[in-house]
Amino acid sequence: MEAEGEGRGRRDWSALPTVLILAAGLLLDVALGGALPREVALACVALGAVSYGFSRLWRRRRPAGPAARVRASSVWPDAGMRGVVEAVREPAFLVDRSLALRFRNDVSLAPFGVIALGDPISLRFRSPDLLQALEAAVATGDAQATEFTERSPVDRSWLVDVLPVRGAGSGPPPFLLLLFRDQTASRRLERMRTDFVANASHELRTPLASLTGFIETLKGPAREDAAARERFLDIMLDQSRRMSRLIDDLLSLSRIETRRQLQSGERADLAHVLRSVAHEIEPQAREAGVALTLLGIGADPIWVNGDTDELVQVFTNLAENAIKYGRDGGRLEIGVETAPPLAGKPQVEALVRDFGKGIAPEHLPRLTERFYRVEGKTRERGTGLGLSIVRNVLIRHRTRLRIVSEPGEGATFSVRFDRLDSSEAK
Ligand code: ADP
């Protein structure tokens, strides 16, 4: 809590040189038994006067420190009012009618730093909107609300309530209370939501535009061209499949995002999950010329906390990617490896590894963003949502996706789980 300067002031030493000069003259006179020459006495008095004049001038030219500003005003919030401001859990400031800061709570220090008591609040908050709200509150005595945003050191947005605080008397409110409410997180969420809608619409519009174009061509110039018709119908089928994949992925994503935490006690057998994924994906791998190997999976179950269907979806997405993007390597491994214990709990690592072209390091941190594709949108092999779905499922499972890859050396996507012993799995 800050109350610096209140009731305290600096001592005024400005007259000291004058006093010393006059005292010296007086002492000299006494020492000489009253025989101080008249000229010397006059010189002492003149010197004293000049020194006094200089000291006043010096004092006036010096910028007023906080203590000086503080003394200049007699309006200070009392202890009760300060206590209320201190109790507020978001940044709060009390300013007087001249908009000078009179009190602020400790919470305000982290986002806004130290602002000296007595300083105009506009020195720190250089916002015309906020200033206007403050002036309107002083002029009308009514509460005002405004927004305040800062770009540096990080983007932050605040809603600011400017509330006149009435004193005991009947006069105009002596203080304004500024309450800052942090809106940064909700603004960011809003922006993400609008970006998402814009991206999703764009992704759907592309195949739709292509379908419309081909339908028009088939109705017009290519009406009688049987060969063109076949080719166009194939492309149209591709595009409509792409649209339905996109819609499926969007629905999966929204279903996963709306679901809450895993139910406690939900168990999944990782061996069963990975065997089913391998079984499902095998025809696709064969068709792509990719040899599939199961690693570390025997007859025994491997129990983890998890939802079987969701984990099947995770490893199917990873295996499909390995075939789509890593087929050049000609091999795909799906399986488990033991990992070092974490916080005293045994760990198991489930992985999908391919030996294809790999992923450049600059893409790795962004792979799980929605709609992110290394090849960009021109090579429309995927929706860019697969890894985003994986990430969201794993967050619910309180674990995360690890990606290790070297360009030209393939990629390993792995997930660590607490391995439960058979008694916990019941
Ligand atoms: P998509 O539906 O486009 O496959 P994902 O979110 O599953 O979307 O993957 C995002 C991007 O990550 C892909 O477009 C691809 O560029 C890259 N990627 C994913 N898996 C692999 C992999 N095994 N090898 C190389 N690149 C990959």
Automatic annotation (TrEMBL):
GO molecular function terms noted in the UniProt entry: ATP binding; phosphoprotein phosphatase activity; phosphorelay sensor kinase activity
Source organism, top-level taxon: Bacteria
Major subcellular site: membrane
Record carries keyword Zinc: no
Primary enzyme class: transferase
E.C. designation(s): 2.7.13.3
Keyword Ion transport: no
GO BP: any one term: cellular response to phosphate starvation
Domain Histidine kinase: 199-421
Regions that span the bilayer: 12-34
Entry's Gene Ontology cellular component terms: plasma membrane
Catalytic activity: ATP + protein L-histidine = ADP + protein N-phospho-L-histidine
Localization in the cell: Cell membrane
UniProt KW keywords: ATP-binding, Cell membrane, Kinase, Membrane, Nucleotide-binding, Phosphoprotein, Transferase, Transmembrane, Transmembrane helix, Two-component regulatory system
Name of the featured protein: histidine kinase
